[in-house]
Amino acid sequence: MTRLQAELQRLYGFSQTPPSDADANGNGGLRAAALELSAPADWQAMGQLWRGVQADLGLPAPAIAVSGRNGYQLWFSFAQPLPASRAAAFLEALRLRYLGDLAAGRLACLPARAEAYADADGADALTLPPQQLTPERWSAFVAPDLAPVFAEEPWLDTAPGMEGQADLLMRLESIQSADLGVALKRLGGLPAAVTPAPVPVPVPGDAATDAPMQQARRFLLAVMNDESVALALRIEAAKALLTACCSPRP
Q1: Local structure of residue 76 (DSSP, 8 states)
Q2: N- or C-end of the chain: fewer Cβ atoms within 10 A?
Q3: Which 3 state secondary structure label does DSSP give 121?
Q4: What angle do CA 77, 67, 21 make, to 5 degrees?
Q5: 225-235 pLDDT tens trace
């Protein structure tokens, strides 16, 4: 196992290949979740969230990555495996607090699952960097001070150094369950003015939009039905679902 693979295993429970059925996620929970902001990449907004996670919530810094396409990613590591609904609630709470004024279509808030590797071409799949997406585009982890440099071209032209990627990850720590619980309580006190961006309603039969729409509905339903999530977040998720269901189709 290389140093990079060891760091990916330590932080996220798996490296760049799908884990087996009896994988490092233990009881089937998730140790990794990713939030991506794209179209266009916007480090000012993403950087605000990255700093807020640490300054406002007292959590370890997430890993910063360029997607290799047109966005930035933040990768969160959980020390103990989480139910998918709890990981989803955490990402949704962060979105509402720090990115609530951005269009929903620019955001992907996804618990990272092994299934993402089996469907890497899917519209709702995120995979751990570093990955080669085209001959001259790589996703990669990047240092905080270099993140703004990639706003125009959020990718690397050549393969990143594996030792350098490992060095970036070795400085990071996982979020402990107790700290996550405190953070979710803090995030539950959302300003009344903050409302989730409406879920876009796809044109029937449009495969390019159907998959993200279904994923968004599953995401919101999981948050709404999870009794361990703060009531304020469950209400916001229900509102977003209601908006999607009642919006007129074009």
Answers
A1: E
A2: C
A3: coil
A4: 45
A5: 776 666 667 67
